[in-house]
Amino acid sequence: MVAGDGPRHARLAMAIRTAIRDGQLSDGAPLPPSRELAAELSCSRWVVTQAYEQLVAEGYLEAHAGAGTKVRSAMARPPARAQKTTHSAPVRYDLGPGLPDLSAFPRAGWARAWHKALTEAPHSDLGYAPAGGHPALREALADYLGRVRGATVAPDNVIVTTGVREGVSAMARLLAGQHDRIAVEDPGWARLRATIASSGLQPVSLPVDRHGARTDELDDGLHLAALTPAHHFPTGAVLSSQRRADALAWAERVDGLLLEDDYDAEFRYDRRPIGTLQGLAPNRVALFGSVSKTLAPAVRIGWIAAPPQWSTRLTQTVPEVGVLDQLALARFLRSGSYDRYLRQARRRYRVRRDLLVSAIARRLPQCRVSGVAAGLHLLVVLPEQSSAAMVTAVAAEAGVRVMDLAACRLVPAHDRPTLVLGYGNLPDRMVDSAVMALATAIRTAAPG
């Protein structure tokens, strides 16, 4: 195994990262399949898949269905001492999707919950975390998911993990022993697609329109599909009632399983949050969630509301979460602090969304906005002749972080050039200046 301190998967990721930076692994160089490398290093396959997923997320590797994992083109570097030091522009305006308002994290409330967890926990709770999660958190999550998200799950079927991607990875590794392909929304969350691919399943494109994923087109030759029914990323579409029925009918017909990512469904501004698909068919749907989009990614707690037939196996494959962190979240949920925080957050994000939409209307009248009813991001459709990739690059040079919708595509499409703008972590006072900076980038990137 790779020598050094720290978790094995982190040490392996560091070794591969260093080999790429030093030029020992060249552009496009294939990496061994996870099973082979795990056998060679005498470690579990999970160690290898976690290392690969981390490097895919960082941009060092790329994973393609049917083609394995390889060094991303133009990523290999000569030895560091031969490189000329370069510095990218610091991010002044964070309009990238994926983060909540980190400045609003409920530090005092979380500290109280954590302190009570520490001082009131019996000595027995200071050992290793129970498989699948501490019973107190599993019970609190089962109650919350049923009460707020309309899920149907017993505490024993709630599996605590470190996040949605880690939960999906654990599920995908189990499924890869029985299946080889999975339908994924296209466009969709690229990092989750990479997680699925590195776990041994081949992502298959499932188109999305204004009614959500085209579940009416699910192939009966498939048995797995990953969906975001309550709030599609990145378009913001809600899976229609007919498409929900189509998805569940397909799963029943093919004896299949749906993986439901419930990533930010609590933030809806035009009506009450849409309930989960899992609540309609708990034996056919595995529901994944976390506090990364509601509280902060640093908390590192997620969950799976698993079909009963998968619960026991999942408890043995998910990464552990610290017991005190679990007890703190359980107390935060049971005390009503989480509900109160979400109510405050919805009001805050609605105001910020309105500020952003208004600034875009003033500063970018040639652009069209969509996907504003929920979540922490929206879409900005650029003029036909624009290049979203060029705008993204020019904006980055000016310290403005945005996302090109094309980066979410599994299969390239001839869409209108479109940006995905997040507003979760952008202070209200900076919204107008951020849009002004983006408008400048759009003008600079304009052809001619």
Automatic annotation (TrEMBL):
Q: Which SUPFAM superfamilies match?
A: PLP-dependent transferases, Winged helix' DNA-binding domain
Keyword flag Transcription: yes
| Coiled-coil zones | none
> Region Disordered: which residues?
71-93
HTH gntR-type domain ranges (all copies): 6-74
Q: Which domain of life is it from?
A: Bacteria
Q: Name one GO molecular function term.
A: DNA-binding transcription factor activity
* CDD domains, per the entry: AAT_like, WHTH_GntR
Protein family per UniProt:
In the C-terminal section; belongs to the class-I pyridoxal-phosphate-dependent aminotransferase family.
PANTHER family hit by this protein: HTH-TYPE TRANSCRIPTIONAL REGULATORY PROTEIN GABR
- Protein name listed in UniProt: GntR family transcriptional regulator/MocR family aminotransferase
Originating species: Propionicimonas paludicola
